[in-house]
Amino acid sequence: MTPVIAFGEALVDMLSNRLGDDAAQGPETFTPYAGGAPANVAVACARLGVPSRFLGMLGSDYFGDFLAAELAHHGVDVSGVVRTDAARTALAFVSRDAQGERTFDFYRPPAADLLYRLEHLPTGVFGEPAIFHLCSNSLTDAGIAETTLALADMASKAGCLVSVDANLRHNLWPTGYAEIGLVTRLLDSAQLLKLSREELDYLRADHPADAWLAERLAAGVRLVIITDGPYDVEVRTVGSTLSVTPPMVVPVDTTAGGDAFIGGLLAMIAKAGLDQGWYQDAAQLERFVSVACHCGAHAVTRPGAYAALPTHEDLVSLGL
Predict the structure, then answer these.
(1) Which amino acids are annotated catalytic?
(2) Are strands 240-244 and 231-237 parallel, antiparallel or unpaired?
């Protein structure tokens, strides 16, 4: 089985008790949940029975202790987690509308995860084939962006499958908008790319979607996954396109839906094992994406991130 290594931010999601802005629900309170997109993916894989490791930096504070303990509790290898007194652990206050769709108010920067550098990398971390997963939230500051791009390059040269989830959070960027050129540079370092329809529309700007996606595939991306909330997932490789319909559910909190999806997909690939044709078997790929859809659907019916992610037993109960 291929291990999964996730790099980037782990943060605390302070989840509002309210759905929508109806004051009749009483005073608004916030409950801390362990989160952060790459950390969510590491947990998703671990809960599905795949060896999983998280690389990143946490503050030497209460929330850093909380996150490290939660990652370990869910079976993630935290030997690559670094602690620092130079910055605090990041927080995200999460509000939800009546349909469970969320908005984020980030307390970052400054934050500990932005201080991770190549010298913090454990020795031999890419010594064996692995899936290396990351996202664009580690591009928002010059120092961490340089580290992120270097790690993606190192992993690729070491024979790892590099997975990138665009996961755009515009309010993390100094200008209020993700830098398209920098994000695209990270996307083109991947063999597996996942983005939402909304992210595709932002990143392609005035380029036709088909032409923009063809450019990514020409750059070396082998598999592009385009999610669209409850609508069909589009799957593209060079010369082929297929659609997978996700199950219909009533969402409660969509915070971890995308991370559960990509975590489920990576777990399926990891269990199958990496080979030269991991993305070329259409029937297998369709099955993997279907399982990923069920993982995402499971997560959005529960509050929080780590605790909402499905386990291997949850998938077995669904006949998957």
Answers:
(1) 259
(2) antiparallel
